[in-house]
Amino acid sequence: MSSRAERVRALRRRTATAAVALFVGAWAVIGGPALVAAATKAPATAVVQPAATPATPSSDAVPAGGDATSVPDPSASVDQGTTAAPLTTSQS
Amino acid sequence: VSAPTLTDGVLRFACFGTTVGVRATGDPGVLHAIRGLLEEVHQRLTRFDADSELCRLNVDPRALVPASPVLRRFAGAVAHAGRASGGLVDATCLPLVEAAGYTGHLEPGGTPAPGRPLPGRTGAWADVGVEGAAVRRPPGVRLDSGGIGKGLAADLAAELLADRDAWAVDCGGDLRVGGRAGAIRAIEVADPWDAGDIVATLRLTAGAVATSGTTRRAWAAGHHLIDPRTGRCADTGIAQVTAVAPTGLQAEVRAKAALLAGRAGAARRLPDGGVVVLADGTVQRVGV
Question: How confident is the model at residue A84, as a pLDDT?
Fold first, then answer.
């Protein structure tokens, strides 16, 4: 591990993860919860958002190829082989 | 280049200079159709092959150039990216990217050849568009497919999967997930300094996730992410941004725009949420 990475690790140990609460309210108003079913490492069944509020297109919505958000259904049963494995996002 | 593999319902193959993974419930034939589609997108949009349609467009002296549907869709994406980001995401600043040294496929930790300024200008995204079956852009303006191409590719694949109960597309870290069943999928955000570590986990039923940063495609003298306001490698106090959005293109644009906006403006660029990792290693969750 590089010295920079070690410094970062040390910083992380000392620094609590900071939440950006300012935008949580605005995010909730514009329909983010319908897109992101839940956050972080909490159990999925405990944080699924109700589907009563339809998603509102964001200001940068793309007309062609745009995709409406789906309705979360905690009772849905699908092939676990295609849903259970987590995906990873990294710098592309 | 390794051969495609189909393991546990996931088709993996080399594309876009990375590994692409596609999975879906139902008939796996669609996975191979998507592979063909994405390989075509790569062949048409790569800037590392002088014979690609994008490279031929970039040297074409005409202002209006007949183009394939894929290239036209990309040109529309370039205009969208500039418009949605207020010019922060500028796919016409390719000369600056090359001047920074990013002139070929670069593996993490690799060292690029010294760059040299090439003809062209930046900030021309507003002049890029589609007219009928042709792409319009001022001669001399060259387009960089980069992350926009991968986000767009994920969206194109998603269009073939709309009738499946559950599916996911991973274009080297640019993700699209969805399905009629509305199943929840965990998406882990990799550490910007160690891709084997996870700094956060998101859970999505449908949508896109993209990550942009300055630590992977980086070298001693800089990295691949140019700030069009300065013409230099971005230095905003942020190491990495992960953005959630309805589409891959939007996620890619939001991630880059948030990183370039810096600490004060990043969260405003993430209306559907995301994860920001500051240069000091601090992890900030935005709306998730």
Answer: 64
Size of interface A-B (CB pairs under 8 A): 253
| Residue B195 touches partner A, C-beta closer than 8 Å | yes
Q: B120 vs chain A: nearest CA distance in angstroms?
A: 25
Q: In the prediction, which pLDDT does A13 show? A: 57
Q: Which of A27-36, A39-48, B29-38, B217-226 shows the lowest per-residue confidence on average (mean pLDDT)? A: A39-48
Chain B CB contacts of A17 below 8 Å: 282-285
Minimal CA separation from A20 to chain B, in Å: 5
Within 10 Å of residue B48's Cβ, how many Cβ atoms? 12
A35 at the B interface (CB within 8 A)? yes
Q: Is-above-0.80 flag for pTM? A: no
| Residues B218, A64: Cα–Cα separation, whole Å | 33
Is the model more confident about A92 or about B160?
Answer: B160
Average pLDDT, chain B: 90
Distance CA B32, CA B26 (A): 13
Q: Is A46 on the interface with B (CB under 8 A)?
A: no
Query: CB contact, 8 Å: B52 with chain A?
Result: no
Are the Cβ atoms of A36 and B267 closer than 8 angstroms? no
| A47 in reach of chain B (CB within 8 A) | yes
> What does each C-alpha distance from B193 to B66, B182, B248 come to in angstroms?
42, 33, 23
Give the residue from chain A lying closest to B16, CA to CA. Answer: A92
Proportion of chain B above pLDDT 70, given as a percent = 90
Q: Which of B184, B212, B250, B283 should be substituted to probe chain A, the one whose Cβ sees the most A Cβ atoms within 10 Å?
A: B184
